[in-house]
DNA sequence: TGCAATTAAATTGTCAGACAATTACCTTCC
DNA sequence: GGAAGGTAATTGTCTGACAATTTAATTGCA
């Protein structure tokens, strides 16, 4: 809990790191109240605005929440699955878009992870997730659906597939992998033919899960992975050609 | 780019959200420079400290970096894989510890995801990753190794296995799943017998990857998952008994 | 006594202004 | 022409103050 006033790093970053370490290590437990900003300022021998900047850093990561008033203050926040999902999706999306990750690599990662979920989804076969997937397939079959909506429905179906595994930790890890693909998928123009092929594979996947046939689900997912990869490669090739010409 | 001064949310949170949206949507591209703090303050009609709190929120998520001096300012940061790994591990660890995720659930998620990597690792079989895994196995066999070091070596071996898939996106997603298990694994007391069993399975996994036998690797991983689950359940049962008695 | 309204206190949120530290650029002098 | 120094721009930090919000205590009244 000591700072280096001569360090090249910001004081607020050092303070945030010190408090974060105490949270991660478990010294500060959930719902515990941090000292007031004035007390923290005195403790670290800095001004209140500097402390505030540090607290905002922690708030940005959902590590603390603040409350005004007499009994207010900063409290250690219980990181909910919903918040973690959101952070995961944001980070994954930015990671892919900013580092020019190729369609191939992102696609391979996504389907490898999804195939890990399929056996669990098949074994547990929750009715509501099956219903969600059927509903998305119905939506994908609607004529006049835009490519963007088709992609959104595709993502929703795959999210249902993942959630069907009944393991929230798995859902958390997969959330980013599935959602971050959407911007890449949105670059694809889906013909009636390709939509039909995808819907057919989606149906095979859901059928297999319903009958708890894990290997059939895996086979269909594998085909879907290959097919998606083909579509993506065509688009990327066309883009490269258009960009060069 | 407008704020609601009557909103219950902090102004700094609103400003951060506005800028974050522009980054995620791609309107602000990598290495672009934001207006200076004074200009932002004028634009949003708030004071500079408020703008600074907003910028610190973004800095906490590695979305921007700041630089002092005449040509300094806040720049859109390219989210590196290394930074994303770190965030992923922190979030995953906190998610597990704060939500009292059971050993079973965390373990299931971890091994399901790892088994998704094994076929790719076997197919690509990078020498340096094989070497890393062999080195960790050697370390695990050393007498006098503490349980904590044994766990750390276990994590390192599995990280090498995951990295061996040669897909950085996959490594990113798996980083949290593998690392976040360490605190849970640290609760286990490893007997000489159990260490031997684990080392044996590790050896089988590495051998299988070296010979590019994906199914053998999967089988060994599956056994390791079952064995780890058994160890964990014993510990949890003992803890529950001790806690109740 | 019991209850409601008011007041006080504590805490975060925001603002204004100032100075320090750092860095790039320009000017001046040799 | 090159090097030294000065200047401007920008972030980092500090001080002090006031506003908004919430809880707790206090007071007044029936």
Query: Oligomer, anyone?
Result: homodimer
The share of residues in extended strands of chain A comes to under 5%
Mean pLDDT, all residues of chain A: 93
Rg of chain A, alpha carbons? 23 Å
- The parts of chain A where pLDDT drops under 50 for at least 5 residues are none
Major beta sheet of chain A, specifics? 2 strands, antiparallel
Features:
mainly alpha, elongated, two-stranded antiparallel ribbon, 11 helices, DNA-binding, homodimer, 3% strand, 245 residues, 70% helix
Strands, helices and their partners?
The structure is a homodimer of 245-residue chains.
Chain A: H1 11-24, H2 37-44, H3 48-60, E1 64-67, E2 73-76, H4 81-98, H5 103-124, H6 127-140, H7 147-163, H8 168-179, H9 182-185, H10 192-210, H11 214-244
Antiparallel strand pairs in A: 1-2
Helix pairs in contact in A: 1-3, 2-3, 4-8, 5-7, 5-8, 5-11, 6-7, 6-10, 7-8, 10-11
The structure holds a DNA duplex (30 and 30 nucleotides).
Question: What would you say this structure looks like, in words?
Answer:
2 copies of one chain form a homodimer. The first copy, chain A, has 245 residues and is mostly helical. Helix content of chain A is 70%, strand content 3%. Chain A contains 11 helices and 2 strands; from the N terminus they run αααββαααααααα. In chain A, strands 1-2 form a two-stranded antiparallel ribbon. In chain A, a hairpin with a 5-residue loop joins β1 (64-67) and β2 (73-76). In chain A, α5 (103-124) runs antiparallel to α8 (168-179) and α10 (192-210) packs antiparallel against α11. The radius of gyration of chain A is 23 Å and the shape is elongated. Chain A starts with 10 loop residues before the first helix and ends with a helix. At the A-B interface, α1, α3, α4, α5 and α8 of A face α1, α3, α4, α5 and α8 of B. The first copy, chain A, binds a DNA duplex (30 and 30 nucleotides) through residues 10-12, 36-38, 46-50, 52-53, 66-74.
């Amino acid at each position: 809990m000591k700072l280096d006033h001569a360090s090249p790093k910001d004081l607020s970053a050092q303070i945030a790191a010190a408090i974060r370490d105490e949270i991660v290590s478990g010294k500060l437990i959930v719902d515990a109240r941090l000292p007031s900003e004035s007390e923290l300022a005195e403790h670290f021998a800095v001004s209140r605005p500097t402390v505030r900047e540090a607290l905002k850093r922690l708030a940005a990561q959902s590590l603390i929440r603040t409350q005004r008033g007499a009994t207010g203050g900063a409290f250690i926040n219980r990181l909910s699955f919903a918040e973690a999902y959101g952070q995961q999706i944001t980070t994954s999306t930015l990671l892919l878009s900013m580092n020019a990750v190729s369609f191939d690599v992102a696609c391979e990662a996504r389907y490898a992870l999804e195939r890990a979920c399929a056996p669990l989804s098949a074994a547990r076969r929750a009715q509501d997730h099956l219903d969600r997937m059927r509903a998305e397939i119905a939506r994908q079959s609607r004529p006049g659906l835009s490519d963007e909506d088709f992609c959104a429905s595709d993502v929703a179906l795959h999210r249902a597939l993942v959630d069907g595994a009944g393991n929230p930790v798995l859902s958390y890890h997969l959330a980013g992998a599935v959602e971050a693909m959407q911007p890449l998928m949105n670059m694809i123009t889906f013909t009636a033919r390709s939509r039909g092929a995808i819907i057919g594979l989606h149906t095979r996947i859901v059928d297999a899960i319903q009958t708890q046939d894990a290997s059939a689900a895996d086979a269909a997912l594998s085909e879907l992975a290959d097919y998606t990869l083909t579509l993506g490669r065509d688009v990327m090739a066309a883009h490269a050609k258009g960009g060069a010409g």
